[in-house]
Structures are given as structure tokens and as C-alpha cells.
Design goal:
Layout lengths: L1 E14 L2 E7 L3 E4 L4 E14 L7 E10 L4 E11 L12 E14 L3 E9 L2 E12 L2
Parallel strand pairs: 3-9
Antiparallel strand pairs: 1-2, 1-4, 4-7, 5-6, 5-8, 8-9
């Protein structure tokens, strides 16, 4: 498995095998004061699944860390199971959209953060962003 896309979004959902993103692709969150609670933040991803990965549980995890690598205790874990459509040519990969919403994340200070996305022991991506003060 590899990720072809990984981004932050205000919201995202998967319907009919398609990824629908609202307010996606940003890397900065502005806050008037700290700590700040961000009500809704979604990691939207598109995975490319190899033929030998189909019909088995693929364990994916997301973990939020700060720029110093400190785990903030915000995480998600899940198992993805992908089949093969009957009209897929032999040896073809499957494209699978995935969303992971997070609610009420507290950021205690202005700094850099990242969601680390892993598959088993392999890091697939880091979605980096920053929280900055604004007047």
C-alpha cells in the first residue's frame, strides 16, 4: 500500500468510492488565544492497494505529534479490507479513498504539528501543519 494523497480538510467523506473534501489542502490553523480547541479536523487520504494486499486486513494508524515529536495522545487505528471489482484487469492496483475525522483537538501552543500515517510498521506519510497566533 502507498498513499497517493494525504491532506488536512475541514471535513471529508467517502461516497460511492469517491472522496468528497470540504476546505481541504491547508497547512495553517489560526488561533486568537491558547490553548485553542479545533472543533473538526479530518485527514483525507487516497491509498493505492496492490493486488496481493486484497482480501486481508490492512492495519492503518494515525498519530498526532508536535514538531518535537511528542505524542499528543490523539490517534486513530483501523483495518481496511479491499476486494477486487470483477472488471479489474489482472495485476491492477485499486484506488481507495479513506477519511479519518478528529473532533475537539486541543492545541496548547503555537508551533508545528503532524499527523503520522502508518501501515503496519511503515510510515506512509506525514501531514504537516502549524498553529499560529492571530490578532
Amino acid at each position: 500500500m502507498r498513499l497517493t494523497t494525504a491532506m488536512l480538510a475541514d471535513a471529508a467523506q467517502v461516497q460511492g468510492g469517491k472522496l468528497f473534501v470540504l476546505g481541504g489542502g491547508f497547512d495553517t490553523i489560526s488561533a486568537r488565544s491558547f490553548p485553542v480547541i479545533h472543533r473538526s479536523l479530518t485527514v483525507a487520504m487516497v491509498a493505492e492497494i496492490e493486488p496481493d494486499e486484497r482480501h486481508r486486513n490492512l492495519e492503518i494508524a494515525l498519530q498526532l505529534v508536535d514538531e518535537d515529536g511528542v505524542d499528543l495522545g490523539v490517534q486513530a487505528k483501523g483495518k481496511l479490507r479491499v476486494g477486487a471489482p470483477p472488471n479489474l484487469p489482472p495485476g491492477s492496483t485499486s484506488i481507495v479513498p479513506i477519511v479519518s475525522p478528529f473532533y475537539n483537538i486541543q492545541f496548547t501552543e503555537a508551533k508545528g504539528y503532524a499527523f503520522i500515517i502508518t501501515y503496519g510498521d511503515e510510515e506512509l506519510a506525514r501531514v504537516r501543519f502549524r498553529v499560529v497566533p492571530v490578532d
